[in-house]
Amino acid sequence: MGIGTGNSGVRSIVNAMDAAMDGWGDRPLERAIFGTAESAEIAGMIDTFCREELGAAVQQCHVYESSQGAVAGLLLEDGPDVVIKAHPPGAEWTRERLAAVTRVQRSLTAAGIPAPPVVAGPAPLGNGWATVEAFVAEGHDRDGHDPTVRAIMARLLADIARLGRDLDVAGIRVGTRAHLERGELWPVPHSAIFDFAATRSGAEWIDALAERAAPFLLRPPGSRVLGHMDWSIKHFRFSVDRVTVIYDWDSLIVEDEPVIVGQTVPTYPARWDRPVILTPSLADARAFVAEYEAARGRLFTEAERATLGASALYALAYGARCEHAYAPAPPPYPRGSLRAALRDHGIAWMESLRDVP
């Protein structure tokens, strides 16, 4: 492709990628997106994308991450800091869906939600599509267990639901329970690193708890609203008590409101870059729902609360199932992990949230 690892920007991407993915093995997401797992080849493709789509080569790579998409935070030569997020090919990440995400993200930014400004895209990168937004690093981390932080997160999630009623959300991913309707307990995992079929052994207790929640999710009550599928503290930066930026807007979804809130409460304090307790206490989970209701301006109905509690249990079980798939191990589970929270409280995650005052 005409650009080798002698290029300092490309070499910087290689270094960031290798540091972030040390020990990851086959790199299935990178293979799906770029057609290769070789860092130098991927770095060259990212640099070429920047030259062709943004008019500048890469000078420095700040960060590289791999989850649902491949994310690179970059300083461009004679240009701004940007974040490129590349997605694998397939029905999940079409050009049309990503165009809808960037359109709604622009609208939310204009309405005062601290989403990074969209720069470009979607545009082809490798076998899939990539979007580009400004690299906003202002602010610092906060503890998601802090009650002030919890209340801010609940209010902003309610703000997105309210604002979404007046936005054109056509093309945004719509929540679906097609797998449950087909009699399948789990959807296709959100990342290729999780193989549920190959890791069934030892996960039977997790599956059993998810099966308790599943019937409540088949026909949820309540209106559909705009929400965020990964509303957790790892995506937030603060200046004192002001949120400076929230990341990961390709997680936008149109879904039943109690389902969105329910799937948020078990993991809003979660982050994986440091040793923290990933889940709130049940009391803090109830407080998050109450703060959301206060920002929403009305309480959830009894039927909505039943769905909310089931959504929380199912979401926690899904996270525990991902933990098991990534690192199967018998109990005792690490303190603060999703499996430990599910093992310790189990069905209480569904029952306690039904009775939010």
Describe the structure.
By secondary structure, the protein is of the alpha+beta class. It has two domains: 8-134, Phosphorylase Kinase, domain 1, CATH 3.30.200; 147-354, Aminoglycoside 3'-phosphotransferase, Chain: A, domain 2 (Alpha-Beta Complex), CATH 3.90.1200. It is 42% helix and 16% strand. The chain has helices at residues 8-20, 28-34, 39-54, 95-110, 147-164, 178-181, 204-217, 257-264, 282-296, 302-326, 338-345, 348-354, and strands at residues 58-66, 70-76, 81-87, 118-125, 128-134, 224-228, 236-239, 242-246, 252-256. The strands form three sheets. A five-stranded antiparallel β-sheet has the order 1-2-3-5-4. Strands 6-9 form a two-stranded antiparallel sheet. Helix 7 runs antiparallel to helix 10 and helix 10 (302-326) packs antiparallel against helix 12. The model is unreliable at 1-5 (pLDDT under 50).
Strand arrangement across the biggest beta sheet: 1-2-3-5-4
Cα-atom Rg, whole angstroms? 20 Å
Dominant shape: globular
Number of domain modules:
2
The major beta sheet can be summarized as: 5 strands, antiparallel
Q: Structural class, from helix and strand content?
A: alpha+beta
Order of helices and strands: HHHEEEHEEHHHEEEEHHHHH
Can you count the beta strands? 9
Strand content: 15-25%
Mean pLDDT: 93
SS element count, helices: 12
Cα distance spanning the termini? 61 Å
Second rung of CATH, namely the architecture of the largest domain: Alpha-Beta Complex
